[in-house]
Design a protein that fits this description.
- The radius of gyration is 25 Å and the shape is globular.
- The chain is built from 15 helices and 21 strands.
- The strands form five sheets. The chain has a seven-stranded mixed sheet, with helices on both faces.
- It folds into two domains: about 280 residues, Aldehyde Dehydrogenase, Chain A, domain 1 (3-Layer(aba) Sandwich); about 180 residues, Aldehyde Dehydrogenase, Chain A, domain 2 (3-Layer(aba) Sandwich), CATH 3.40.309.10.
- With about 500 residues, the protein is an alpha/beta fold.
Length: about 500
């Protein structure tokens, strides 16, 4: 694997320029593919977060951005989207270096970054309030829709650029300023995207980036008194801590957390499509995807043959160098996560699951330090097993059989999570019933990990609350203000009624 050159070295991005950390500390990011150092970033402190929050506050309180018309903001965001498109290959390769995902799919992510930003620009034209003219002849009212102010955005490592663009352009379209905390494993795209935003005309201080760890930078950002709102994407365990800290403010918090999505295959499905969708649903992005179809629920009458064909196709997939165009699955994010995935598989076997393929670290020629995982399928998994209930976040599929629709619904909903589920069937009636009965923010029908920028995305139950993308993704970053107007001379509430 070849990287982009010598290790990059980057400070924070505060008030429009690179900014060294207060204490001058740096941390290294090693490639999950080769083990080589690819970047050194500023190791942020509470003081760095304070500088960024103060810059964002000044940009919001006295700067031009929230005072621009929606059309003015939209034109700048559209220029930003075009610049993202122009720099798509660099953005994709930065994600290959730091995430370990394949370059083929990283290019798709880069295209998605541009699409999200372009769509957010169109929404900037549409931020408006409501007029109430039916309150009688002496009253009229207007409900304003206003930006929240300063928003803290915490971005995960699995889709760092894409999720940055699910948050930042929408927050900006509404008129906010932001402080972004990228994952310490994948900081490159946040810094590059912010640079492109300012080239497009976003004023300095509207987007600020502080790199570093969650316990220091993330915690300081959530607790900072100048931050009015937090938007967090990450694990359920960390999300609970974010909500607790935000509640102490109190400040609004939007969280998108873990998942254990069911991929439900009925006997009447197009089985070729279902096989392809099942493979994509679990092995896309190495299984490090919040909506991965990690639980295959397959109807008993077709289960044996379907699983047999699935195993054969899984063994034909190529795990390896993500810059090789022929590679299907890249490396996991780091060694500790790889070890965690292997432990989950071992526990599943201990609890009675049958290992059909995979289950261990994958050796890749020429990349002895790479964090590669064999593509894994566990069969005969019951709902009581940890591998059925817990998010593994890797290329591990667990298989459970069901008899009928009611049992499929019960198994799918037998999870603390509620982000996404998928259904494969040729029956329109079945698909509609299932979509209504499944408890998740998204239901895919005869497709997997699919969507559009216009559609709101988010979860229920243990997968969090709030929405990104779509009109709801912009409204998430706004608040309403009611303005009541009395027309004409007001009759006194108090006074000499006899005068």
């Amino acid at each position: 694997m070849t990287n982009l050159g010598q290790p990059r070295q980057s400070g924070h991005h505060i008030r429009g320029s690179a900014s060294a950390p207060v204490e001058g500390r740096l941390f290294e990011r090693r490639s999950p593919v080769s083990g080589a150092v690819v970047a050194r970033y500023a190791d942020g402190t509470a003081e760095d977060v304070d500088r960024a929050a103060q810059a964002a506050r000044a940009a919001f309180d006295t700067g031009p951005w929230p005072r621009m018309s929606g059309a003015q903001r939209a034109k700048i965001l559209l220029r930003w989207a075009r610049l993202i498109g122009d720099n798509a290959e660099e953005l994709a390769r930065l994600e290959v270096e730091e995430v370990g995902k394949t370059v083929r799919f990283a290019r798709g992510d880069a295209a998605g970054m541009a699409d999200l930003t372009e769509y957010a620009a169109t929404l900037a034209y549409e931020v408006h309030g409501d007029a109430y003219t039916n309150l009688g002849e002496r009253h009229s009212a207007v409900v304003h829709r206003e930006p929240m102010g300063v928003v803290g955005l915490i971005v995960p490592w699995n889709f760092p650029g894409l999720i940055y663009c699910q948050k930042v352009p929408f927050a900006l379209a509404a008129g906010n300023s932001v402080v972004v905390k990228p994952s310490e494993f994948t900081s490159a795209t946040a810094l590059k995207l912010t640079q492109l935003a300012e080239e497009a005309g976003v004023p300095a201080g509207v987007i600020n980036v502080v790199t570093g760890t969650g316990p220091v930078v993330g915690q300081s950002l959530v607790a900072h008194p100048q931050v009015d709102m937090i938007s967090f994407t990450g694990s359920t365990a960390v999300g609970r801590k974010v909500l607790e800290a935000a509640a102490a403010g109190p400040k609004r918090a939007h969280v998108e957390l873990g998942s254990k999505a069911a991929n439900i295959v009925f006997a009447d499905a197009d089985l070729e499509d279902a096989l392809d969708g099942t493979l994509f649903g679990i092995f896309f992005n190495q299984g490090e995807c919040c909506v991965s179809g990690a639980r295959l629920l397959v109807q008993e009458s077709i289960a044996d043959s379907f699983v047999e064909r699935l195993v054969a196709r899984t063994r034909a997939l190529r795990v390896g160098d993500p810059l090789d165009e022929r590679t299907d699955v890249g490396a996991l994010i780091h060694g500790d996560h790889l070890a965690s995935v292997v432990r989950h598989v071992a526990r599943g076997q201990e609890e009675g699951a049958r290992l059909l393929t995979g289950g261990a670290r994958q050796d890749v020629a020429g990349l002895p330090e790479g964090c590669f995982m064999q593509l894994t399928i566990l069969d005969q998994v019951s709902e009581r097993m940890a591998v059925f209930q817990q998010e593994i976040f890797g290329p591990v599929l667990v298989v459970t059989r069901f008899k009928d629709e009611d049992e499929a619904v019960a198994l799918a909903n037998a999870s603390s999570y509620g982000l996404a589920n998928a259904v494969w069937t040729r029956s329109l009636d079945t698909s509609i019933r299932m979509a209504r009965r499944l408890r998740s923010g998204t239901v895919y029908v005869n497709t997997q990990i699919d969507g559009a920028v216009q559609l709101p995305f988010g979860g229920c139950k243990g997968s969090g609350f709030g929405r990104e993308m779509g009109r709801a993704g912009l409204e998430e970053f706004t608040q309403t203000k009611s303005v009541m107007v009395h027309i004409g001379k007001r009759v006194p509430f108090f006074g000499a009624k006899g005068e």
